[in-house]
Design a protein that fits this description.
435 residues, alpha+beta, 15 helices, binds histidyl-adenosine monophosphate
Length: 435
């Protein structure tokens, strides 16, 4: 019986795994530039963390969580996102008890949502994100948005659009919710079952609805911007103008409400323009400000702001923009031409690796032609050929597998010469990459 992967999951290997690793390395590099430290939290948490944190009215909690009872009859959930778990960790470990706020953490790891799989949408996916807690200022919001933008820029992703909105303060949201309730009261019986539920729990969530027929009604709903307090408007304007100062143009979008209940104030999303030949994968990332989340899960009254990118979506777009090859191979393919030499090469390979070369070798006697073919298939830079002749002369033959040039080098001098050759090879490759 063949066992299939679970729907909405995917295996990563070879070039694709390298591509993902490269995306993740770019994200971590940028987070380090902004001095974020890594945080790793468990994949499983108690279900009520997400119910309280992400929110009862969100689709995530209502329809998408992988929840089960463990053998101790506790309700456990595979995390649908990481922000709530990080807040829990900050409370558990009293990380807030420091004179040096804001806390600044970055993270990377799998999340699980029971969604309908489609382009860019999986049931297991990975997020990279950051959270900054304890600096309730528009400067922090702007910095987080700029960090996300720099990640996309560094990945060479073009035509990025940053959408921004403000969900306002408590008072603004209360007034807006009432206005929405009044407006939707006239239409709700014609709307989908989810909207009917949202109407009762949190009418703001109706704006997330993707049902085509409901869009017409939603289009004419009251706009958040008409209900924002003067302070909330000023805060948003400050964020927008700070970003403008560093050449990041953002688009103010009244309909951006984000699908998680913990947001207050500024929210944002990163999108790319539709490009020929590229699937529309939705938002590459998004985030926002949350004034009450830490407090709601038992921590002190500290505000936070953060963002998360979907690694799959970044990798998908990046794979179409980058010219880099992700087929990595060894620097050296060491070829022993007899069993005796192959056995001796065991320690030679060790010596080469200890000098920083990426080395692979053959374990069985095969013809020179067949070994060279293997070396090329493995994408090796050089073949290091060692036959009886080489052993007698105390040297090795080095073949550049791209140019096919071949030279002999003395064993005593091998490490020094190979280092130069590899460096020159890399320099040539880097030059070819520039166009
Ligand atoms: P989110 O918008 O739910 O926000 O998810 C962030 C990103 O994760 C999305 O923009 C998307 O790229 C990716 N993503 C979401 N669902 C899927 C899926 N089913 N398959 C593939 N990728 C997906 C959050 O999760 C917030 N925790 C972000 C945040 C951090 N806000 C403040 N701090």
């Amino acid at each position: 019986m063949e066992i299939y992967p679970v729907k909405g999951t995917h295996d990563l290997y070879d070039e694709e795994a390298n591509l993902y690793r490269s995306v993740e390395a770019h994200c971590i590099f940028l987070a380090n530039l902004f001095n974020y430290q890594e945080i790793r939290t468990p994949i499983i948490e108690h279900t009520n963390l997400f119910v309280r944190g992400v929110g009862e009215s969100s689709d995530i909690v209502n329809k998408e969580m992988y929840t089960f009872f463990d053998k101790g009859d506790r309700s456990i959930t595979l995390r649908p996102e990481l922000t709530a778990g990080i807040m829990r960790s900050i409370v558990t470990n009293k990380l807030y008890a420091t004179n040096d706020l804001p806390l600044k953490y970055y993270y990377l790891g799998p999340c699980f949502r029971y969604e309908r799989p489609q382009a860019g949408r999986y049931r297991q996916f990975s997020q990279f994100g950051v959270e900054a807690i304890g600096a309730p200022t528009y400067l922090q919001d702007a910095e987080v948005i700029s960090l996300g933008y720099r990640i996309l820029y560094m990945l060479g992703i073009q035509n990025v659009k940053v959408y921004i909105n403000s969900l306002g303060d408590e008072e603004s949201r209360k007034n807006y919710r009432e206005a929405l309730k009044k407006y939707f009261a006239k239409h709700i019986d014609k709307m989908c079952a989810d909207c009917k539920r949202r109407y009762e729990v949190n009418p703001l969530r109706i704006l997330d609805c993707k049902v085509e027929e409901d869009q017409q009604i939603i289009k004419n709903a009251p706009k958040m911007s008409d209900y924002l307090s003067t302070e909330a408007k000023m805060y948003l304007n400050n964020v927008v103008s700070l970003l403008k100062e560093i050449d990041i143009e953002v688009i103010q979008d009244d309909n951006l409400v984000r699908g998680l209940d913990y947001y207050t104030g500024v929210v944002f999303e990163y999108h790319v323009d539709k490009v020929e030949g590229l699937d529309n994968v939705g938002a590459l990332g998004g985030g926002g400000h949350y004034a009450n989340l830490l407090k709601e899960i038992g921590g002190p009254d500290l505000e936070g702001v953060g963002l998360a990118f979907g690694i799959e979506r970044l990798a998908y777009v990046y794979s179409h923009t980058t010219k880099e090859s992700f087929k990595y191979g060894p620097d050296l393919y060491v070829m022993g031409m007899s069993q005796e030499i192959i056995d001796k090469n065991f320690s030679l390979c060790e010596l080469l690796r200890s000098n920083g070369f990426v080395v692979e070798t053959n374990y069985e006697v095969r013809s020179m032609k067949s070994l060279l073919k293997t070396a090329v298939r493995k994408n090796a830079k050089f073949a290091l050929i060692i036959g009886e002749d080489e052993v007698l002369k105390g040297q090795v033959t080095v073949k550049n597998l791209k140019s096919q040039e071949q030279t002999s080098i003395k064993l005593d001098d091998m490490v020094r010469v190979l280092t130069t050759m590899i460096n020159e090879y890399r320099a040539d490759e880097a030059q070819e990459g520039e166009f």
